[in-house]
Amino acid sequence: MAGNDKGVVCVTGGTGFLASWLIMKLLQNGYSVHTTIRDINRDISFLRNLPGASERLQIFVADLEQPDSFDAAVEGCTGVFLVAHPGAFDDKEPEEMDTKRRVNGALGILKACLNAKTVKRVVYTSSAFTVLFNDKEKNGLDFVSLIPSMITGPFICPRCPGSVYTSLAMIFGDKDQYKNLTVAPMVHVDDAASAHIFLLEYPEAKGRYICSAVEITVREMSEFLSARYPEYQIPKIDSSEGFKYYNLSSKKLLDSGFTCKNGLNEIYDEAIQCCKEKGLL
Fold first, then answer.
1. CATH number, domain at 88?
2. Does the residue 95 lie in any domain?
3. pTM of the full structure
4. Is 221 among the domain residues?
């Protein structure tokens, strides 16, 4: 295990699917990590029990509704991962309100980064927020954003993440989710986390990057799952109507030297195995 030789970084929203996996990867790679949570009473043993956490993970209470609450977590960090939670397909909050809350919170965290005077780069898990900013902020703060496609695979957080549940809709038998899978670009959570670290460390990183490993239609998914997991009753689907994703090319990220290591087999094998281990399947 590498020692504390890569400095201190901050990951916001540490209990989330991607954020918790990213924390695990950062600890494995020799970083010390500050992370933020909203609820001090929440069970965060899955973070505290990560290898290296007792020595190199500090947990702070902060809330996007109170951007100043991030000051302590950001202080002394050289890099900050602003990991916005992905909106659920069935999220009840109006999109405009959700976006406004995230933008205001992110602005506050960027202010904390500037005030800290130690932060050199912010890597933002992208949403519409990124179009508001240039690549380099005042005082030399680099701002880089990563746009992952539907993140799935195994998870260390207690609950099944919405994107994992949606990708396993045919396994779970949830027909209401099929509309979200018409053409589904996906990326393994480990590759998404690795891409964040890559952009933190890549000196020439600039602007926005897309991270997506595979793309599959709902009909192809039905055929794939039926052949690979015959123990489940996978429906035969011929429809091509529903939600479509466009322009998710990872060329810029790949041209920078990053490579996704996991394909469709790993994504589904590990997601299903994880759900089995957690008693969800």
1. 3.40.50.720
2. yes
3. 0.89
4. yes
